[in-house]
Amino acid sequence: MNAHGSFIWYELVTGDSAKAKAFYDSVCGWNIDAQPAPGGMDYRMINAADGQAGGVMQLNADMIAGGARPTWLGYLGVDDVDASVAAVVAAGGQVHLPAFDIPDVGRLAMVTDPQGVPFYVMRGASPHTSTAYQRMGLGHVAWNELLAPDDAAALAFYERLFAITKVGGMPMGEMGEYSFIANGDSKGEAVGAIMRVQPGTAPGWRFYIRVPDITDAIARVEAGGGKVVWGPEQVPGGEWVISIVDPEGVACGFVSPGKS
């Protein structure tokens, strides 16, 4: 079982699962289920080479009428979903989807932090440790980056409620500090960062998926109808990173150990 405050799942919310499959299968090396699992909701698993890396949820008419839009969402594993939801509300956040149970899956709820950034909290039914996040795993989210209007307030919120702690930082000049974060599973190793959102960029969690080669990823992003909005940039440690929007305009990123 993952520690409280660990990233345990990632979900792409999309208006077109087939197009999402074509794009991300090509860029990430995934094999997203071609058909949804049995049941009333169109939900498909993201299959990396070594197992599941997340899920894809197809928006239906009711969801769209309620304001749902294509996006990437992260799930934080928690010890007690209802207690976490109450703590989020007490801290100034909101509940978008009240806590509910999925048989054999777990209990979960969708909330926003006090600055309006959405995420899920979940207590999984399985005793096994989730491997959806892997710092060095190809085809897995390898970096979790929060762009917040008030980065100091965001750090305080996630530390107090989810034991996500700052473990160093990198000065970014007028952009402020890029604060590295760790959680209970990472044993002090950074799993992502929090920084102040810049003008013209929407606040939210951005998830960076590991691919073998950033040049190849750029070509596949562009061939698939996506757009590179930043990079390629080599970051401290030698990895290469790009930030993109997919064909539906959903923001995410890719990270690789090399660049051809």
UniProtKB/TrEMBL annotation:
Domain of life of the native organism: Bacteria
InterPro entries in alphabetical order: Anthracycline_SecMetBiosynth, Glyas_Bleomycin-R_OHBP_Dase, Glyas_Fos-R_dOase_dom, VOC_core
Annotated Gene3D superfamilies: 2,3-Dihydroxybiphenyl 1,2-Dioxygenase, domain 1
PROSITE patterns: VOC (PS51819)
Annotated ranges, domain VOC: 6-124, 137-257
Full protein name: VOC domain-containing protein
